[in-house]
Structure formats: C-alpha cells, structure tokens
Amino acid sequence: MISVNDFRTGLTIEVDGDIFTVLDFQHVKPGKGAAFVRSKLKNLRNGNTVERTFRAGEDVGRAHVENRAMQYLYASGQEHTFMDNETYDQITLPASQLEWELNFLKENMTISIVSYHGEILGINLPNSVELKVVESEPGIKGNTAQGATKNAKMETGLNVQVPLFINEGDVLLIGTGDGKYISRA
C-alpha cells in the first residue's frame, strides 16, 4: 500500500481492480475542511484518462508493472508480433490494443512491453522516433507571416504538420506522445 501523499508522476497504482499510472496530481489544502489530493490517472488496460480525488492520507494499492525490452518483428493481418531480446520468446498483440502506437512502429524497432502479473497491458514507445516522409505537398513560398506548415505522410501512415522546407524522402524526428514534428533527423 502507498499513501496518496506520496504520489509522483509515473507511479503505477491499483484502484478498484484496475491498474492506473499517475499522470498529474495536486495536493489541495482548503481553508475550511480536510486536505485532499486531486489526480489525473490513465487506465493501463483501456487507455482512458480519469480524474480522481482522494482524501489526504488515504492508502491505495501499489501496482508493480514489469517492462521488458522487445523487438517489433512484423504484422500479420490484425496481429503484431514481438520478440523478447533475451529469451527470443515471441508474443502477439491485436491491433486494437496498439491503435496509437501503430503510427510509430517500424520493423526491428526495440520497444518496451508493459505487463502486470502476466497480463500484457500495452507497449511503451521511445519519446521520439525517426520516420521517413513518403508523401508531401510542395512548399509554396509567399503569403506566410511565420511558421507556415504543410501536411506530410510518414512511412507508417501517420499524417504530420511539417515546415514548408520538408521534402519527400526526408527523415524526421516525430514525438510519440503527441505525434508532432520535432526536427529533421
């Protein structure tokens, strides 16, 4: 058990039978009444984000999730296969469990599989990935005050807003948290 007073970003907890990671928290001490902790939690089983308020000093269960380095091998229909880098065991995950992550996965990429008591909850991507531009509109000069962007399609199918100087064939650094352009690779 862990006290809500000890919350920190990234902590995994078990509340009402579900596994959550703490995204944000705030200790509140009102002038009248008892102190409480307002938190923003992400459900690791279904990806939903919820806001929850706990009384100060309340205890919640600590969830010890396991992260294993694995390599993405290939997609076969609606299933995606990963291989453990140490034991060479392979696991298969359905595409429905990897909806957002598929925008960034490339073959032979090393990622982290998150599991809890043998149940695979999902994958953790690196903070940014290098992706190649396969389709891009030509940049039109003029009529731009500042920061003009255009649409570019990446090799994984992800559409990203990029600066006008980006061309087809360029390799870009894309943030996996929000899917936005960071820089050229």
Describe this structure in words.
With 185 residues, this protein is mainly β. Helices cover 0% and strands 54% of the residues. The protein has strands at residues 2-3, 12-15, 18-28, 36-43, 49-55, 59-62, 66-76, 79-84, 90-94, 110-116, 119-124, 128-136, 149-154, 159-163, 171-175, 181-184. Strands 1-6-2-3-4-5 form a six-stranded antiparallel beta sheet, with no helix packed on it. It has a five-stranded antiparallel beta sheet with strand order 9-8-7-10-11, with no helix packed on it. Strands 14-13-12-15-16 form a five-stranded antiparallel beta sheet, with no helix packed on it. The chain is flat and about 60 Å long. The model has no long low-confidence stretch (mean pLDDT 89). Pathway: Protein biosynthesis; polypeptide chain elongation. It comes from Paenibacillus oceani. Keywords: Cytoplasm, Elongation factor, Protein biosynthesis. GO terms for molecular function: translation elongation factor activity. Residues 129-184 form the Elongation factor P C-terminal domain.
Question: What are the SSEs and their pairings?
Answer:
Blueprint: E1 2-3, E2 12-15, E3 18-28, E4 36-43, E5 49-55, E6 59-62, E7 66-76, E8 79-84, E9 90-94, E10 110-116, E11 119-124, E12 128-136, E13 149-154, E14 159-163, E15 171-175, E16 181-184
Antiparallel strand pairs: 1-6, 2-3, 2-6, 3-4, 4-5, 7-8, 7-10, 8-9, 10-11, 12-13, 12-15, 13-14, 15-16
